[in-house]
Amino acid sequence: MSSAGPIFRDKDKLLPRYIPPTLLHREKQIEFLYSFFGDVLTKPSQVRPRHLQIIGPVGSGKTCTCVRFGERFEVQAKKLGVDLKHLHVNLRLLGGSRVVLYRNIVQQAAPEVYSTSLSAEELLYQLVKQLKEAKKYIIFTLDEIDYFLNLAKDSRIIYDLTRLDEIAGPGEPCGLLGLIFTARSKDFYKKLDEAELSSLGRVPLEFERYSSHEVYDIIGQRASEGFNVGKVSDEVIEYVADITGGPTVKGDIRYALDLLLFSGTLAEHEGASRVTAEHVRRVVSRTLPSITTEDVVNLPEKGKLVLLAVARALKSKKTPYASLREIRGTVGVVCEEHSVKVFEDVEEVLEDLADRGIVDVKSLTEVGISGAPVEELSAFLDDLISRVKESIA
Fold first, then answer.
1. Exposure winner among 10, 101, 110, 139, fewest CB in 10 A?
2. CA 262 to CA 14: how far, in whole Å?
3. Domain 27-206 sits in CATH 3.40.980.10
4. Of 323, 330, 272, which Cα lies nearest the Cα of 306?
5. Range 348-371 average pLDDT
6. Residue 132: helix, strand or coil by DSSP?
7. Per residue in 310-320, pLDDT tens?
8. H or E element: which one contains 65?
């Protein structure tokens, strides 16, 4: 889609991948991260890795806080002559494989030793060896560890990564200075044994949901960057903030940004001179807090294709549910349209979509979109199909 137009100055400023230079209502959290990790830069070869959890609901700013902290920490390290890199690993994009995760880490941190022929243990050994020899250091964030553990059903990654210094040997630097795990809640503790919990640390940094007032500040900042002057009023921004801060959306800033983006797109499509509350109301009826643009963009390719097939199957039936057989048939059509080889693991992909809270799988004959509004099903599916198609392209 075109980034600028009669309504928009720059649509990209309303997309989840954009992180503004100043994070309103999260600068204190960045300061805490500095205080937690800051002194490791003074003698990086002599410190043990520090581990921190960040716990907070979806859309509460965990990811953007870690990314912005990592960027600033790299700059600080460079000033002190420390060769440090912050790695942000989105576990929702990697699937539930321990070896794939380690390959991703090694590919980013030490591409010189990357190899698909290495086992999980060998990858970590080569990573530590390379960092030690090159006198390089890393801090990395594992985003959504709870999702990964639920999908992989393998908690060894926590034990492995929190004990990298043991690979280096007593008193030797392992190259890892810090490790941040983010999760939506503490429920993932139940999947860990005592040794893993001990390695992880028991005191997390907790992010509260954004209030309506905080949402207003944040989306006001983004609107000033994304819209042309005078195209969205304070009243509309306040209306979006009230919806987002309410009991249904619960402060998810991603949904607030979607409302602004899609309301502006609707206004522009209709040739309106500005975005109104009515545009927002109409978008609300066609979107769900549980499925944001970020959720769709972050799906692996198979997930996008299957989600598109589910939406298409539901639209053709005009009912809240479709059968697995109908979805399989539609997947074949979707794959052909996008020049992708047809795959057989549709059921496994549906299970992943269910784990992400995007689809409901009640039985082999009842698969639907989580929370899809029956009274607005057709319009909702049109919107979802459009978003999925755009993310595939």
1. 10
2. 10
3. no
4. 330
5. 91
6. helix
7. 999 999 887 88
8. helix 62-79
| Closest to 124 (Cα-Cα) out of 157, 86, 146 | 157
What are the structure tokens assigned to 187, written together?
A: 């429920």
Model's pTM, two decimal places? 0.89
CA–centroid distance for 349 within its chain: 18
Structure tokens at 126: 């080569």
> Could you read off the pLDDT of 149-177 as tens digits, one per residue?
988 888 889 989 998 989 988 888 899 99
Residues recorded for the chain: 393
Q: Are 49 and 179 in contact (CB under 8 A)?
A: yes
CA–CA separation, 123 vs 339, rounded Å? Answer: 34
Q: How far apart are CA 207 and CA 107, in angstroms?
A: 30
* Tokens at 206, concatenated: 């907790």
Cα-to-chain-centroid distance, residue 381: 23
CA distance 357 to 68: 27
Q: Give the separation between CA 236 and CA 224, rounded to whole angstroms.
A: 13
Which amino acid appears at position 191 of this protein? Answer: K
Of the chain, the end-to-end C-alpha distance in Å amounts to: 11
CA dist 54 and 144 (Å) reads: 10
**Domain 11-18+210-284 indexed as CATH 1.10.8.60:** yes
Q: Give long-range contacts, CB 8 A cutoff, 24+ apart: 324-329.
A: 324/350, 324/364, 324/365, 324/367, 325/364, 327/367
Rounded Cα gap, residues 31 and 69, in angstroms: 8
293-392 CATH, one of 3.40.50.300, 1.10.10.10, 3.40.50.920, 3.20.20.370: 1.10.10.10
Amino acid in the structure at residue 250: K
161-175 exposure pattern, b = at least 16 Cβ within 10 A, e = fewer = bbebbebbeeeebbb
Q: Which residues contact 190 (CB under 8 A, 6 or more apart)?
A: none
CB atoms under 10 Å from CB of 225, counted, come to 13
Domain layout of the chain by residue ranges: 11-18+210-284, 27-206, 293-392
With vertex at residue 360, the alpha carbon angle to CA 359 and CA 365, rounded to the nearest 5 degrees, is 115
| Angle (CA) 43 44 45, round 5° | 95
247 three-state secondary structure = coil
Q: 303 exposed, middle or buried (CB, 10 Å; 0-12, 13-18, 19+)?
A: buried
Give the pairing of strands 50-55 and 176-183. parallel
- The structure tokens listed for 79 are 């000033």
